[in-house]
Amino acid sequence: MHSGTTLTQFIIEEQRHIAGATGDFTALLNDVVTAIKTISNAVNKGALIGVMGSLDTENVQGETQKKLDVITNDIMIRNNEWAGHLAGMASEEMDNVYSIPTKYPLGKYLLVFDPLDGSSNVDINISVGTIFSILRAPVPNRAAAKEDFLQPGVKQVCAGYALYGSSTMLVLTTGHGVNGFTLDRDIGEFILTHEDMRIPADTKEFAINASNQRFWEAPVQRYVAECLEGKTGPRERDFNMRWIASMVAEVHRILTRGGIFMYPRDTRDPSKAGKLRLMYEANPMSFIVEQAGGKASTGYERILDVEPTDLHQRVPVILGSKNEVDVVVGYHSAPKAE
Ligand code: P6P
After folding, report:
1. Ranges for the Fructose-1-6-bisphosphatase class 1 C-terminal domain (predicted)?
2. Atom of ligand 1 at shortest range from CA of 277
3. Annotation-wise, does 177 bind a ligand?
4. Whether pLDDT at 71 is above 50
5. ipTM of the shown complex
6. Can you give the residue ranges of every domain in the chain?
7. Which of 167, 268, 290, 304 would be a feasible disulfide site paired with 153, CB 3.0-4.6 Å?
8. Which atom of ligand 1 sits closest to the CA of residue 212?
């Protein structure tokens, strides 16, 4: 018999912190967790059950969909649509908001998610994840319209991610710190293994896709160049670099040992403002990072303060160890070099 606190126990205790939370929140989070366990099983079996490879369809982002993108999206929908806790759902894989079928009751929360982040890695067996964010519906028990989802990240009730790696982990916050749970497959329960996760204020490890270097804006060019200069440059220390191309894995590494992750604005398509999506990647991850003592900025403003204008809008992302994020943000407000 395990001695650790189970996620179920933890959620019930957490619910006491959330103003106005009733059993609804606990039951909703349990449904999300059931979906995550089901996704973990599908991802873990992989080729054994024929879920590898791509479809000949694209999602709203114009990205080719993996079979698992669609399968995991369906798992999130099917596990969360029926219980009466939600007024609607939104996903990276769906153009429009998902309306709860009329046969089911409506509830007071909104669930926003990226069902399988980093899915381009799934065929090469690199860690992927699920990212989710829970908001309050402006009008409970009424079918939510797209506008109801367009709330700044500071309004999130809960944010979390599942990491399908060497072990399956669930990391979440409800605004009172960050806690990590590891799936014990023998009993089908998540057990508290990483209590009160904190991001070190300083780091010597940066993460960015260096192949885009020629498209970065000047402040990011300057920051990365100084990292590469190491001891011989103005930062007077050597840096290490990582890039997994799976945001969930990058953020988990930063929560575990510090670091800074950047997917900056890119001059190729200024309208895109970067690659990562605000509502179901940047906002939930920023909530988690801030709750663990880190910082998350677009370079120009706190990510959690960004007022959304579209369900699938993108933002530049600079997050992680707060003193390092401050350096990059400082370069964004420094006078342009003559
Ligand atoms: P690139 C995965 O597709 C993702 O959305 C994030 O998980 C990841 O950090 C980023 O894109 C990787 O982007 O351009 O390096 O493939």
Report:
1. 199-331
2. 5
3. no
4. yes
5. 0.96
6. 7-194, 205-333
7. 304
8. 14
